[in-house]
Amino acid sequence: MNSKRAAIVFLTCLAGTAPQAQDSEPLSAGTLQAAYFIADAQATTVSAYLYLPYGEIDNPYAEGLAHYSEHLGWLNGFGLAKADFDRETNASTTLFRIEYHFNAPPEDLEHSLQVLAKTLTPIRLDPQFMEQERGIIAREYDLGVRESIWADFNQSLDRATYGDHPITRSVIGTPDNIINFSLTDARAFHKMTHTVDQAVLLVYGNTDLARVQSAVTSVFGGENATPRLPPRDFDFAPMEEDIQSVTVPKSDRQLVLIRKRIHLPQTQSYQRRVLIATLLQKALLSPYDGSLAKPLRFDDFIAQRIRVDIDYLDQNDLLLTIESEPDLDITLPRLQQALLQTLSTIAAQGIPAETLQRVRQQYLTRLQELETPAAQVFADARADIAARQIPIGFETARALVQDIRPAEINALLTRISGEGHLVVRLVNTPTGDKN
Ligand SMILES: [Zn+2]
Question: Is the distance from CB of 323 to CB of 306 less than 8 angstroms?
């Protein structure tokens, strides 16, 4: 899923900062699947990120075990270096990837890579130690899930959107699962996913290409002939439209949440598709003709706030999300109807070329004005790697945005307003009696 590019416009920028060309440089990856470097002269350290393109969605064992295997991988690699306070390390797991991160001064890069490589070696930890680690995860669960009033809502929304597809799996698991994680299963999952030929390395920070290449070659060898993993391609079962009014305990927000899952066999490159979706999302939220926001927020006071996301789930499926809060005296069913009706009206007419041109120009201007383009290239590269795609640089992305035609954006709009699996939740507050 890649909606990270959409975040670009919200970054602040300093006027007068000279724009820098920023690219992710491919490296000779040796035994790794792939390796990239993004230079950032403003950073004070060098961060090395090691990605395994597997996550909870690939886990055939108890829910949450992918995250447990990440903890064990981390102990494998970093366990003995824990007392070293000069260095920052971290690790995380999502549905789609496991990431290990080591942040250190530039001269320590080779050491960072050696430690990261150790996360990929077979787990040979004391079983008692492994059992204790389940308690650490149980505490993470307490801090994260228990406190979220939206956890149950989100889970049932995912079920309604995807059925019992593994994409609905919980990354953290349940307290019962966590405390009973099987050490054998965790070792097996780690062995299946943590291999050097599947791992992708991303080095980011203040150093130079030659130095990074030399460290990578020293730890992982030279050249590279590892075949790339194909991007994901899910099979979702057909499902019935699902529209419901619900109440979220303790919530004080009334809102309409629309999700539509659309099967859209790809005809363009991944990067182009993502950028087309980004431009469409911005056009829909713009105050110009052909947007959702203009009639509903600015002309008539129907919606107070509208959020739109268009995310690719895999090669051939995308998810449209529209979230909106009603303006005063507007009921939730009225807002739902207005959102869907406006979307199909815009799609039938097409967004005017002038609107798309303005949105594109604003997007390019903001890219240009970013204070640290390297940080954005890095954020995009992380998302690309998690989607099992090759990251592209700043200049390539900019050239692609310039090349996208209005007809391509309107073609996507037609698709997202057309056939798909529709899920709608009219979310009431416990005290709300309006609807
Ligand atoms: Zn954790």
Answer: yes
Which H/E stretch holds residue 323? strand 317-326
Q: Measured in angstroms, how far is the CA atom of residue 69 from the centroid of ligand 1? A: 10
Task: Encode 145-177: b = buried (16+ Cβ within 10 Å), e = exposed.
Answer: beeeeeeebeeebbebbbeebebbbbbbbeeeb
Q: How many angstroms does the Cα of residue 277 sit away from the middle of ligand 1?
A: 32
CATH of range 29-220; options 3.30.70.260, 3.40.640.10, 3.30.830.10, 3.30.70.330: 3.30.830.10
Fold of 242-428: Cytochrome Bc1 Complex; Chain A, domain 1 (3.30.830)
Residue 72 Cα to ligand 1 middle (Å): 10
Reported pTM: 0.89
Q: How far apart are CA 128 and CA 126, in angstroms?
A: 5
pLDDT band at 93 (very low <50, low <70, confident <90, very high): very high
pLDDT, tens digit (0-9, with 9 covering 90-100), for 117-129: 999 999 989 999 9
- CA–centroid distance, 70 to ligand 1, in Å, is 8
Q: Kindly report the average pLDDT of the chain as a whole number.
A: 90
CA dist., res. 369 & res. 363, Å (int): 10
Q: How much distance in Å is there from the Cα of 93 to the middle of ligand 1?
A: 7
pLDDT digits (tens, 9 = 90+) for 219-276: 999 888 888 889 999 999 999 999 999 999 888 889 999 999 999 998 899 999 999 9
**Which segment of 59-68, 78-87, 205-214, 253-262 scores lowest on mean pLDDT?**
78-87
Query: How many whole angstroms from 2 Cα to the centroid of ligand 1?
Result: 22
pLDDT above 90 coverage of the chain, percent: 76
Q: In this structure, which amino acid lies at residue 246?
A: V
Q: What is the pLDDT of residue 246?
A: 96
Structure tokens at 196: 């050097």
In the chain, where the domains are located? 29-220, 242-428
308 CA to centre of ligand 1 in angstroms: 30
Tell me, in angstroms, the distance from the centre of ligand 1 to residue 271's CA.
Answer: 30
| Whether the domain at 29-220 and the domain at 242-428 fall into the same CATH topology | yes
